[in-house]
Amino acid sequence: MVLKKLTWKSILPGCLKSESSSYPEPKQICSQRLSISDFSNPGSPISFSDLSSSIFNLHVFALKELRTITQEFSKSNYLGEGGFGAVYKGFIDDKLRPGLKAQPVAVKALDPDGSQGHREWLAEVIFLGQLKHRHLVNLIGYCCEDEHRLLVYEYVERGNLEDKLFYRYSAALPWLTRLKIAIGAAKGLAFLHEEEKPVIYRDFKASNVLLDSDYNAKLSDFGLAMDGPEGDHTHITTRVMGTEGYAAPEYIMTGHLTTMSDVFSFGVVLLELLTGRRSVDKNLPNREQNLVKWARPQLKDPRKLDKIMDPRLEGQYSTEGARKAAGLAYQCLSQHSKSRPTMSTVVRTLEQLLDLTDTPIGTFVCIVPTEGKIHGGVEKKGNEGKNECDEIKNGNKCEGKEVGIKEKAGCEHNQRGRRHRRRAKSLRNRAVYSDTALYKTLGTGLYFPRN
Ligand SMILES: Nc1ncnc2c1ncn2[C@@H]1O[C@H](COP(=O)(O)OP(=O)(O)OP(=O)(O)O)[C@@H](O)[C@H]1O
Ligand SMILES: [Mg+2]
User: Fold this and answer.
1) Yes or no: domain 29-154 corresponds to CATH 3.30.200.20
2) Per the annotation, does 75 bind a ligand?
């Protein structure tokens, strides 16, 4: 095994300018992946000379460069905002830096008043700097100047699954596309869980699944990710973090975290894909607000299942496939973590559903936007032209609660009122952005295959 001698100085270039005399002892690190625990003291004067770029294959950008490529973080480049901060589209090429592949990027800037900070930024850099996979978003580089913390990712064309699945502005996702997305996301999680040092993702939810132009799923947001238990340990114990409606019950109750906590969250997203309902929807009657509580008892009964399937699918799905996917979701959502399947079993089970003979194939959907309205299929969908979405209403109503558990989209992160208003505004912008983007892409009435 190749042993590499790394010092704290050598880990992150361009970061933490102040150097102190009290460096931790140099560490002997083998070619194994570096962990967040190798950086357990966030105040450590990690410096920037002497980088071993073979470990962190990342570009270090100057703030000035990122300002340039996002046109000063202009509104027209704004993609959205989450707990970390705002995200902007930009473009890089070798004029910016020799050797850079010309490509669009997404630049995420830490909001200094937000709920996340250096620790989450560092987790992203450490995990995504080392983990490369088709179903994980590619981190291209970062910026760490004074108090500024930014991340530069590949730009993922279709944005996140939450928008695609729930916004009325988006055309309904066909059955096979949903399956493809579920399989891609499951492969991303399986990869993390099967690493030599397993990674627990901890924040699996629809808004963290990005979709490329071919609907390949890519997991994003590693700010909450953690290394799994080592040696004889069965779990790690940690503060409960995550998003309401997605976190596993045993994790919420005890703070005990395992890869099976991710499997539960995957089950919730699978349920969202099947039903077209959000994991938590405060606009529904009380007993229907929590998706898992409402849907789980109905998953095993084929007659009941038909009734809870997403009406936007208009019956265009494989009956057997839906039944099997529902059975799988049921297992993933088991109260007993040990009864849940591993993610590689999930991948195998879902892949088999692609071959079912009763799967509807290749019907076409025509999307012809008209002023203020977007119509899916041939029929006009009456309320799709509404300017205000339900999420914005949620954002204004949100009261925030439960330390560490983020409220669902729209009522952001149990933060102060200011943050809620900002999130509501951000969502409003997102809705406008999606509308414009859709219009640009589909404005001439192009035909899109259903899968
Ligand atoms: N690499 C990317 N390519 C394209 N769009 C992106 C990319 N990364 C993030 N976005 C978009 O930026 C917006 C904000 O994303 P972000 O992950 O910061 O927040 P979130 O997932 O909505 O919330 P949370 O903080 O709870 O994860 C989303 O609309 C997302 O689709
Ligand atoms: Mg996210």
Assistant:
1) yes
2) no
In 3D space, the residue among 174, 250, 168, 166 whose CA is nearest the CA of residue 205 turns out to be 166
- Tell me the backbone φ, ψ of residue 448, rounded to 5 degrees: -120, 130
Nearest protein CA to atom 22 of ligand 1, as residue? 82
Atom of ligand 1 nearest to the CA of 80: 13
pTM of the model: 0.77
Query: Cα(279) to centroid of ligand 2, in Å?
Result: 15
| pLDDT tens string 366-389 | 444 433 333 332 222 333 333 223
Q: What is the pLDDT of residue 406?
A: 60
pLDDT in tens, 176-224: 999 999 999 999 999 999 998 999 999 999 999 999 999 999 999 999 9
Q: Which residue has the higher pLDDT, 20 or 149?
A: 149
Distance CA 367, CA 442 (A): 7
**Residue among 79, 102, 77 nearest 91 (CA):** 102
Cα–Cα distance for residue pair 443/233, rounded to 1 Å: 55
Which CATH class name applies to 161-229+242-353? mainly alpha
Domain ranges of the chain: 29-154, 161-229+242-353, 364-441
- Which of 276, 273, 215 minimizes the C-alpha distance to 451? 215
Two structure tokens written together for 230: 């080592």
Residue 188 makes CB contacts below 8 A (sequence gap 6+) with 133, 135, 136, 217, 218, 219
Mutating to test ligand 1, I would choose from 166, 205, 207, 222 the residue with most ligand atoms within 8 A of its C-beta, which is 207
Q: How confident is the model at residue 31 (pLDDT cuts 50, 70, 90)?
A: low
Task: Give the C-alpha separation, 424 to 420, whole Å.
Answer: 6
Q: Is 8 helix (H, G, I), strand (E, B) or coil?
A: helix
